[in-house]
Write a structure and sequence with these properties.
The protein is of the alpha/beta class. Helices cover 55% and strands 11% of the residues.
């Protein structure tokens, strides 16, 4: 961590929640932040909105088409394995953009950064202790529950020529990306918590807060 540029010390104080889509990362981070008065960095929000100019600039620099690929190109023209490989290959570049966002913050208390792009193999080199990160992954039953009950999980938000196959591709891709996160976390010695739905969000947040306890001592909501 000593050679990582961290002008305001924010990265040194950050707690990280990575893992899979639909595992409750956002809810857990917000519950902990509300309890302890912390700042939350929502990776997915910034990645989908605030990083768009950087994404376009990178395409221009690489000589790639500037516009977004068509929904059919993203969700139908390749299989889940290729989709997962493409997603994983893009995470390192997008992670650097997230680090730039965090470097611009100053917080005397820890920040919590959450999102599926916060991959254990990318975060680990930043950590003074592996206890600063946890990875949440859903069991298959809980993933199916989320798909049935969360509108944003149950269907794509963009028009495609084959909605059924595109959703199946998406679910399979997300499963592969989740498995990769869990495997890398376990290889590195980072804790993985499987979310199976037997605990409500508050109980999962309490478990994660317990994992982060050494860094939450003395912090409380104002």
């Amino acid at each position: 961590m000593s050679d990582v540029w961290d002008p305001h010390g924010t990265l040194r104080r950050t707690l990280w929640i990575g893992g899979a889509q639909w595992s409750g990362k956002t809810t857990v981070a917000e519950l902990i932040a509300g309890e302890y008065g912390l700042t939350v960095y929502h990776y997915d929000y910034h990645d989908a909105r605030g990083h768009q100019d950087r994404r376009i600039a990178r395409r221009v620099a690489l000589g790639d088409p500037v516009g977004e690929p068509s929904p059919d190109r993203v969700w139908l023209d390749q299989g889940p394995e290729a989709m997962a490989a493409e997603t994983l290959a893009g995470f390192p570049v997008r992670f650097e953009w997230a680090l730039d966002d965090l470097r611009g913050l100053f917080t005397g208390r820890p920040a919590i950064a959450e999102g599926w792009g916060l991959r254990p193999e990318l975060v680990a080199p930043l950590l003074d202790s592996l206890r600063r990160m946890v990875v949440l992954v859903p069991t298959e039953d809980f993933r199916q529950h989320q798909i049935r009950t969360l509108p944003r999980a149950g269907s794509l938000a963009v028009p495609v020529s084959d909605p059924v196959r595109s959703q199946a591709n998406r679910i399979a891709r997300d499963r592969l990306v989740a498995e990769d996160a869990a495997q890398n976390a376990r290889r590195l010695g980072i804790r993985v918590i499987e979310v199976d739905g037997t605990l409500d969000a508050g109980a999962v947040a309490a478990e994660v807060a317990g994992h982060f306890a050494p860094y939450l001592r003395g912090a409380s909501a104002a």
